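User: Some background: our group keeps a shared notebook of sequences we're curious about, and every so often someone picks one and asks for a predicted structure to add to the entry. Today it's my turn. The entry only has the sequence so far, pasted here. Could you supply the structure so I can complete it?
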Amino acid sequence: MAEHRSSIDIAATPETVFRYLVTDAGIIAWMGDWARVEPVPGGAFAVNIAGYGARGTFLEIDPPRRVTVSWGFEGSETLPPGSSTVSFELSPTRAGTRLEVVHTDLPEGDVPGHVEGWDHFLPRLAVAASGGTPTPDTWKPKT
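Assistant: Of course. Here's the predicted structure to add to the notebook entry:
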């Protein structure tokens, strides 16, 4: 299994960025077109992204420093719901927040698609959390 790390600086406080990771409206602002989340350990994490159902559970909630969820996709044989782990780690900076995303337990063949996805969605999070409106999202995975 593989791991992927991404990071981005966001011109918003950790408290603001945190809300974009743990609320339905916050998640939809930057990733997906539907979300139903219950941000407590063991609570549901469900987001529809470009026609794919990402599903898992919240594993850790440490406001405003860390959110960890299990992650996978409905109907996937290689990455079924809850089979990988995504951790969002937030650190305050002079300009706002440094967000690091650590995605572990990825099958090797699924890494390129997730790198592409995080590279697309994290800048959208930065725009939304800093008070902007991301452009309409027409992204589709290449696979």
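Suggested note for the entry: The radius of gyration is 14 Å. The first helix runs from residue 14 to 22.
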